[in-house]
């Protein structure tokens, strides 16, 4: 869990330079897949194993929507638990051996409601069926089968109060009343609510603690939000905490922290180049197992020999792919293993640690042959002010890195990052003959505090320069055809698209803006109510509409649409709670008023990004048609 609470937008989630090379066989025939091939629902995905290890569950399409199914391990019969037809199940988990809980919103409004159903399909319940209320999962209370702890902004839309919910009776008991500034809660290993994270004075964060649930919360640490001690979980005696901390350091490290006395006890793992923010543990054996961080790929450091041996055994069979443990039973001897790569959504396996037996359950997208798809390679370049910017370049299969049409793809967030993984957007574009360029511009996470904070108040300024410098690097390297460069992005990436064609109007021949911000003034006024406590923080990170009005006016693309030359395609969800539809309306109207070519796609049953399969098909088919028109 994070103490550093930031304003995040949707995203789809290099230690050394890489010399780009490619096959010189220009006659190499590459199989072309359809948009539907890349974006159709997996046949089966999101596998989880029951606490007793007797069943596994998964999501699969039912009338083009992802629903939940359960199957006894070793048997062929399947029970369909849900039959949602308007929208996918957002997420689910096993509450106990007999019941599964899941979250779902309506039309992309992100007001998730909690539902439950027995694994034989009986007794479906809606636990939090409240209008305009969002449900958070605070703790699934693994050792208390009939209870969980949730957060609801039912009493006040701006803040979340914690409740203990009995999933058999539906009774909810409020555990604490949020005074208005608490942004998160954390429990100990016994499921007791003992830590809270608060915003103080708009831009400071406080860590609150209590010894027991009968005690009052007390402040143990207050820092400016640029520094953070992010509790991960309690030590196994429930006295101290493991945390990811950048206090007094640039790169976040894993530490043991005496929370009652506000004192760091020990640093247990750090990396000189990258933030370390993830730590795993064995609940059964009460040992920490591994820390992980992301360089250009995910890296692990093992504390526990048993866990290291298990991963080594898995690598012997699956070493070609990245390996992730996605679920395990309570006894921690049966595991769901997921593989993936840059060219494959991989497969699911059932692993028995006692026998070292690995059984394949299914491929996620067997209709795609990874040998037909393109490799995602790490690159790096220098910004104009000397920063090293890491990124990825995906070349069309069979093409040299020379004079190519390129789609520049800045990520959303903006305080997030791109990583080496399978990305259907990237593979679609590469399959159509476009090189795809992704960069972790300043502000991208994982590279330390200095790299993050040097992005503050740099929307449309140095953050945009990092993108521009990357494009010019591609041109100077001879990789990009300077007359065939497009820019495409979603959310903050959509803002970067609009800023790119406004601030550097001759750099891009066309652009695609997907749920992007166009006017920083109107954007700040329409954020969801539960982001209001973060507003002062965002004024410091993005800009204050009053104090920084001149800068925000200069970097709001909708106010400078007269500079836009490139044809633009805009896609927007009508119910988007993060980037209001008005953001897209403004830029579209401004271009239509000037007779600049603009296409506009609005989906009435979507929010921040398109999730319904038919809408994804429409969008990506239209995007490819648009790019082909202007790039080929």
Determine the strand fraction and express it as a percent band: 25-35%
Low-confidence stretches: 1-26
Report the CATH C-level class of the largest domain: Mainly Beta
Indicate the mean pLDDT. Answer: 94
Q: CATH fold name of the largest domain, please?
A: Methanol Dehydrogenase, Chain A
Notes on the protein architecture:
- This protein is α+β, with helices and mostly antiparallel strands.
- The protein has 3 domains: 46-295, Dipeptidylpeptidase IV, N-terminal domain (Methanol Dehydrogenase, Chain A); 304-366; 370-517 and 550-631, Alpha/Beta hydrolase fold, catalytic domain (Rossmann fold), CATH 3.40.50.
- The protein contains 11 helices and 35 strands.
- The protein has an 8-stranded mixed beta sheet, with helices on both faces.
- A hairpin with a 6-residue loop joins strand 7 and strand 8 (125-126).
- The two termini are 46 Å apart.
- Mean pLDDT is 94; it is low at 1-26.
